Amino acid sequence: MTFDSPRTCRLVGQRVIVRIPEQRDIASIVRHFRENEAHLDEFSPFPKEFLSEAFWRIQVEAQRREFAGDHGCKTFVFEPDDATVIGSANLSVIVRGAFQSAYLGYALAGAKQGQGLMHEALALLVRFAFTELRLHRIMANYMPRNARSAAVLKRLGFTVEGLAQRYLLINGVWEDHVLTSLDNPAWKLG
Ligand SMILES: CC(C)(COP(=O)(O)OP(=O)(O)OC[C@H]1O[C@@H](n2cnc3c(N)ncnc32)[C@H](O)[C@@H]1OP(=O)(O)O)[C@@H](O)C(=O)NCCC(=O)NCCS
After folding, report:
1. Of all protein residues, whose CA lies closest to atom 22 belonging to ligand 1?
2. Which tens digits make up the pLDDT trace of 46-69?
3. Ligand 1: does its nearest atom lie under 6 Å from the Cβ of 153?
4. Nearest to 181, CA basis, from 97, 102, 124, 98
5. Radius of gyration in angstroms for the set of CA atoms belonging to the chain, rounded to a whole number
6. Which atom of ligand 1 is found nearest the CA of 146?
7. Per-residue exposure over 30-68, b if at least 16 CB sit within 10 Å of its own CB, e if not
8. How far is the CA of 48 from the centre of ligand 1 (A)?
9. Per-residue DSSP letters for 129-162?
């Protein structure tokens, strides 16, 4: 059974498309993770399930349901063909009430790095988060040695707020993370 969301998230940039996945994307998602396992598990959690089509058949529906329920906005980054997955960009744990916030996570295929593609993808997603999802605050955290990730966030305007020790389990090690955030100065009560 597929879940039909009344809302959509499909963001078209000059070199990337950022959107919520569909069942037709599963082969491309799995190919992306299989080709990039060694690259991606250095800086972000990489459960072995990411390599399984059966896992993504369930996970794609979960992500669509999460988006429809306003709990998250977990997207993939596609080539302009709208079919080839080259990365992921996730807004997780949307909290409303007095917080109006979410966590941002992202990762790009190794062969696509260094061209500003993740900057383009995240600029689209951040604008969507502030204008359509009406979030006030986005938080994003990275390992101190992840210079590329630090540079992506800095260019988007995120500011460093501190260091969390032993913050996230990555590749079997509890890794410290630099904590950053971006808030939405145009946010209005609505
Ligand atoms: C972090 C990541 C998403 C960056 O994506 P990207 O599209 O390569 O990013 P960009 O091309 O915009 O480059 C980012 C910055 O890194 C800089 N950079 C390029 N190569 C670099 C290198 N070897 N070392 C340090 N910085 C480098 C670029 O100059 C750019 O900085 P600038 O915008 O100030 O010029 C990508 O490297 C990645 O997926 N890494 C593995 C997963 C990961 O780390 N996810 C984030 C977890 S917090």
Report:
1. 148
2. 999 999 999 999 999 999 999 999
3. no
4. 102
5. 16
6. 44
7. bebbeebeeebbebbebeeebebeebbeebbbebbebbe
8. 24
9. HHHTS--SEEEEEE-TT-HHHHHHHHHHT-EEEE
Beta-carbon contacts of residue 187 (< 8 Å; ≥ 6 apart): 100, 130, 134, 135, 136
Ligand 1 lined by 63 (C-beta under 6 Å): no
Which residue's alpha carbon is at the smallest distance from atom 29 of ligand 1?
114
Over residues 87-131, the pLDDT tens digits come to: 999 999 999 999 999 999 999 999 999 999 999 999 999 999 999
Structure tokens at 37: 């396992």
Q: Is the pLDDT of residue 6 over 90?
A: no
Residue identified by tokens 């993740």 is 118
Q: Name the residue of 44, 113, 119, 141 to mutate for ligand 1: max ligand atoms within 8 A of Cβ.
A: 113
Ligand 1 neighbour 171 (Cβ under 6 A): no
